[in-house]
Every structure is written in structure tokens, then in C-alpha cells.
């Protein structure tokens, strides 16, 4: 369906994750190993915060395949960021257009999604009408992913991100089942306000799309003292990915089924995810 990654830690050039790893995100756009489709060529995007995180995120999005975009290649070698999201899209039926490329942004918040609301055309009207009227006019595209984002904002993403996503998923499931959809939602989601990052892995059928997080950097340095790159990033650096960027032993840990995680200053958090029915 799609592939995405999130980075939080010492400022690095975007190309360090988009292009340089063995199985970089650009490599995955052509040769995904764990995705439903091996090729993700229906648009791309990257959103990043500067060192001054009081400013809103910047976005660069395109509608072509990521592997062939020279502007992305150029920017990735010159933009350094302490927190960024990147996404490569494989459409589940909505058009390939600029407004349908992730990340989606509203104020300081960004959102990326891999998965689908099943039978979206059947339930779309009910879902969209539940969006706060003050937010409705900000919906620019036609994807289920963007509707999920604005439902989460409606349910309080800015105040309590975990509860807001739980309520969003519960509402989507209740709506879908009212229309006879057995398994209404499939998702891995990443969202951030520029300070913290939240990741969610969940599906109605209990067979969610893959998601991994990087091992604690202090432990990883002890495992691999020979890897020089690990010496130059902070102990709090964390990467969350749809699939691993390489085969370094011990570097990647799977996010369990029906789980959310929070990347933040100090100790990160991981806990079970349970939808809240309306």
C-alpha cells in the first residue's frame, strides 16, 4: 500500500535515510520487501521541522515516483532536520494528485498513513460529515488517509493524541460495520507536533501492516562498536519505519500488533492500542 518513516534525534541530512541505507525509502519505492505492493510509485512527500521547532513544518510533495524526482534528490542532500516524516504512496483507488500525497499537515501537526479504510466510497460521506465544520474546509484531497487525520483532529488530536486516534478508529469501525464492512480499517499511522512523535499499528482483522522501531542507540553502539555513524547521533535518536532500512543485527524491533508508541525526550513509551467506540 505505502511505505513511510519517521526520524527524531540529532539533526541529519534527509538523504541519510531517504537514499543512503541499503534498503532506503527510495529503494523501497521500487523494491518493497514487506509491503502489499513491491512498487510504490504513486507520489511521495517529506515534511520536516527546522532546529527552531517553534516554526511549522515544511512540506515537499510530488505526484511522480520518488526514485525519479531530481528535486527530491537535490533537497535531500542539503536539508538537515531533527524531526522529519517521509512517505511513498501506492494508491488504494483515489487519484494520483498533489493533494493526495502524504504527509498531510494542519498547523504544527503532520500525519502519514499506510493501509486503507475498506470500501471507502461507501462510508466516505458519513465519515466526512463527522469532521468539525471548522476543520472541514482544510481537507484538500480525496484520500481516506486525510479523512482519518481530520477525524483525529476533530476528536482531540492536539490535546490527547492517543485517545483521539482511538476514537477515530472506533468511529471508522462502527461506521463501516453499519454498512456491512467486516474489517473496516487497516493502518500504521505516524503523527507529530514537532516535539513528540506518535506511531500506531492496528487493523480490524488483527493482521496489521508491518512497523518497526530502531533499537536504543546506547545498546546499539555496544552491539556494533565498529559502526562509526552510530557514534555521531544522540542516545535519544529513534527511527520508526514500515520496514527496516538495512540488515544490521539487532537494529530493528517490530511494533507488536495493536500497539502505539510515543517518541519523546526521556523514556519512550509503548502500550496496547484499543479503539474507543462512539
In short:
The protein is an alpha+beta fold and 278 residues long.
Written account of the structure:
This protein is an alpha+beta fold and 278 residues long. The protein has one domain: Aminohydrolase, N-terminal nucleophile (Ntn) domain (Glutamine Phosphoribosylpyrophosphate, subunit 1, domain 1, 4-Layer Sandwich). It is built from 8 helices and 13 strands. The strands form 2 sheets. A 7-stranded antiparallel sheet has the order 3-2-4-1-10-9-11. Strand 5 and strand 6 form a beta hairpin. The protein is globular and about 55 Å long. The model has no long low-confidence stretch (mean pLDDT 92). This is Glutamine amidotransferase. Its EC number is 3.5.1.118. InterPro entries: EgtC-like, Gamma-glu_amide_hydrolase, GATase_2_dom, Ntn_hydrolases_N. It is an enzyme of class 3 (hydrolase). It comes from Actinoplanes digitatis.
SSE arrangement:
Elements: E1 2-13, H1 15-18, H2 25-31, E2 44-49, E3 58-62, H3 70-76, E4 80-89, E5 104-106, E6 109-117, H4 120-129, H5 133-136, H6 144-154, H7 161-178, E7 185-192, E8 197-203, E9 212-214, H8 217-223, E10 238-241, E11 252-254, E12 259-263, E13 269-272
Antiparallel strand pairs: 1-4, 1-10, 2-3, 2-4, 5-6, 6-7, 7-8, 8-12, 9-10, 9-11, 12-13
